[in-house]
Structures are given as C-alpha cells and as structure tokens.
UniProtKB/TrEMBL annotation, chain A:
Keywords: PQQ biosynthesis. It holds the Pfam family PqqD. Monomer. Interacts with PqqE. Pathway: Cofactor biosynthesis; pyrroloquinoline quinone biosynthesis. This is Pyrroloquinoline quinone biosynthesis protein D. Signal peptide: none annotated. It comes from Pseudonocardia yuanmonensis. The keyword Endoplasmic reticulum does not apply.
From TrEMBL, chain B:
The gene is pqqE. This is PqqA peptide cyclase. Pfam families: Radical_SAM, SPASM. It comes from Pseudonocardia yuanmonensis. Interacts with PqqD. The interaction is necessary for activity of PqqE. The keyword S-adenosyl-L-methionine applies. Keywords: 4Fe-4S, Iron, Iron-sulfur, Metal-binding, Oxidoreductase, PQQ biosynthesis, S-adenosyl-L-methionine.
Amino acid sequence: MSSPDSAVLAATVPASGRPRLAPHVRLTFDRARDRHVLLRPECVVVLNRTGADILGLCDGRRTVAGIVEDLRKRYDRVAEADVQRFLSGLVDRRCVRIDPEPAPDRDTEAVDG
Amino acid sequence: MDRPFGLLAELTYRCPLACPYCSNPIDLAGYRDELTTAEWLRVLEEARELGVLQCHLSGGEPLLRRDLVELVRRATELGLYTNLVTSAVGLSRRRAEELRAAGLDHVQISIQAEDPAVSDRIAGTPSYARKIEAARVVKELDWPLTVNVVLHRQNIDGLADIVGLAEELRADRVELANTQYYGWAWRNRAALLPTRDQLERAEKVVREASRRLAGRMDVVYVLPDYYEQYPKPCMGGWGARQLTVAPNGDALPCPAAQTLPLPRASVREESLVRIWTDSPLFRRFRGTDWMPDPCRSCDRREVDFGGCRCQAFQLTGDAARTDPVCHLSPDHGIVVEAVRAANEEERPDTLVPRPHRAGSS
C-alpha cells in the first residue's frame, strides 16, 4: 500500500485541494445493499461508511485538510494520507474532481446554474 | 449470491437502422409481442428491489417506444441511473426535453463512421445528419454524452477522424468498440474482422487521443476479442452483475444468451427476483463449479469467468466449453483460423444489411 505509486497518486490530491463530485456523478443510498453508492454512466462504486462520510463532505468548498478535521470529530483516528489515497482512487475513476486553491466563487456559480 | 448492478432493458428490436453488425437475434419474429408499459414498470420496480442501480434503455431503437418518457420517469423515481442507448433517429429537441425533464441521466448516441456517406451506407439509411443534430441538442441540454462507434474492417481506418468528431461534439466519452460477432454480425464476420495492421494503427490513434484528451474526454477502446490472449469477462460473470430483459420479456444473463439451448425465463411468468435467484437459466453458469479444464484450475477463473458462454456455443456448439478466444482453450484453433483468414485472404467488401425495417411494423 505504501508503494511509491500510491505516494504519487496521493500527491495528486493535495491537502489544500477542494474535492467535489465530478459532474453527472450521483451519490445515493442503496437500500438493497444497505450501502452508499456512487453512480456514473458506466460504473457503480459501492462505498463503506467512512467512504460515504468523506464524500458527504466533498462539497467543493472544504479542503482535504478541512474534511480530515471534520472526520476527526466523528472517528478516533483519521490519517490524512488515507483520505488522500481514497480520493485519488476516485479521481482516477473520474468520480471526483479536485479544485485547486483558491476556492472558486461558488455562490456566483450557483446563481448561474 | 451477488445482486445485479445493471439492467439492460431492450425495449424493442424495431430499429430505423440496418447495421450489418447488429447483435440482436437473427430471427425477430418471436419479439414482436413486446412487453406493455405496465409490464416494463413492474420490471423496473423488481429490478430495483433486486439491487439494480443502473438502467440502460436500449433496443433496437428505444425511442420507438411511445412510453419511453414514462419509463424513464419511473426509473428515476426508483433511484436508478438511466442511460439511453440510441441511434438518435427520433431524438427531436422536444423529445429530448421531455426525457431530460423525466430525469434521464445520460445519452449514448451511435455513429457508424466519421464520413457522412459511409455512416449512412453502414446504417442503411440517411441518418448521419440527424445524429449530429441530436448530439448537439444533448450537449445544449447539459447532458453527459457518450458517442459510440462500432469498429470494423470498413471504418476503423477513419478512427482519428471519429475521435475528432466526438471531440467537436463535446462528448464526455467516446466508446470505440470493435464488433462482437453475435447475431447479424456473425453472418458478416468475414467482411467485418479487421487485420492486425489495421488494429496496430488504431491502437496508436487511441494512445495519442487518450493522452491528448485526458481530463476532457474519456476514450474507451475495445479490441476485437479474437485478437486477445484471454477472453472478455462477459457480463462480469454469468448471473453475477448484469441482466438483460428482451422486448418479449425474456430475462437473460447475457444479451446473446437467447441462442443457447437452455430453459427460458420470462418476466411474464415469474418475478425478476425469482428469475435471478432460482431460475435454471441464471444458475446454469453461475460461479465456477460448471467450469471444465483449463478454466477449472486456472488462476484467471474469477477474472474472466471462462469468457462468453454464447461465443463458446457459437464457435464449438457447446456453451460449457472454455471461450475459444482464450489461448489456453483446446478450441483456440478456430479463432486462430478466423484471424489468419482476416490477414491473409481476400475478404468480401459487401456487408449484408440487417433487414430491420421490413420486419419492423
């Protein structure tokens, strides 16, 4: 897990990045499996509870560091590198996008869209 | 037992196109008595109950169903991610807006070739201009768009232009899938199977396009499995992740499975849940117990699941054999011979079009 590859991957999601779901990706709860899932045209990602909690915080405003801080209120031990690794896996699967700092002015965008 | 993720809802086999690589059944006579709206609504509900999360509305041409908007609306209410797989013939702006309002999540439009004349010739009907127009409407409505092009000997050399067209249409994905030899495509195999040189050129184009378009457009390329070393993991395993419901209500573990000499399972007679769980059809090749050697002892048995049962049947007459595409299959010589012929022999230029329209009313 701590291979050079995963370090490179995790580096694509900096602590200052602001993750959000990629356009047209839906986060939903599947009662049949009792799990949260991510839906895209050609793929379904079944999430565990921690994964669902992380994605629930990916609103394009919070930074990865901010998300980790929030998670620490709910969980005893949260390693920032684990969160980065999880998100970078979803970036590779085109489910998550990372906005760099500074945060875009989302309020304006929300009015337009 | 696993729960399925995807339902391929083949709403009708009627189609305005006559593509010579059509994978729908050869004999369509048994599919004219289509499920009613009420029956499809029940199928969608039962699919969701079973755990299905994605619903691919396909055919034939699904737009020929007048109840399409209603089916999409119900699928959306149930929480299904809906994908329309269409020729785009009949996707007027008004119809598109209705589908958008009903909650349709994604649109996949087929194009037969980059060149309008070639595209129309392969489709068997003037359709290129309408497809382009519909693709533009899809993007204007801010839908995610996949452009799908079935590749073969007669259009694969235009791959770079096909990618360029998808880019110009602002597609989010372009799916470049070589023909699979089922149904009508099987009849035209000699005229469709590309040469090794063609595939090498195509792969170069795909590599360059993927690099250039990274982050903007997904480029998905599927090699003809005849040229692969290992078979495709058909449907992610038999009765494991996907199921198909044909226009007449037959439930199938693989869209080509109606060709197999197995007992039928129909949503007109049983619930989808029961079919998935208990039917002899869905249990026949589930898991790995059915496998012969070399699959049985192979490390890849849970990777490719022995390949495609329908292809094994088509090529060997026995659906329980290893897919002959696998280089370890005792029947691999059949595939080797087809590939040899594609590379060394004169091949017919003429494609036999699928006479869809004659049988469509």
